[in-house]
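Researcher: Here's a chain I'd like modeled. Treat it as a single chain, no partners, no ligands.
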Amino acid sequence: MPNPSDTPIRVQTTTFYQGDVPHPEIMRGLQQVDPSFPERIMKMTEEALSHRLSMGNKILDRDTRFKTRGQWFTVLLFAMVLGLAALCIVFDKEVASVDVVVSGFGAIAVAAIKGVNGR
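Model: Modeled as a single isolated chain. Structure tokens:
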């Protein structure tokens, strides 16, 4: 019967590193293969980061543009409600003008609240 201490033991080590740039030990190993590898990897990383930042800025610009449109649409609705209420008053329809103001501003308030809550 073989002695258990004579049995070879295998040890496996796994190292996990997360980031845009490889671990420094990996970079040193790549530098031994080709001295230009670390510099090329850094350049590719900088280009990828620059691309990600530019895409994020485009998304922010688009969101800002849509918010601005919504604000102008709200101003237009506000002016239309006031104009319709004034028109009702001119034609001696005071009750109708109150209804227009309440329903118009109620709709604008509901839309604003939904916009703030993101629903």
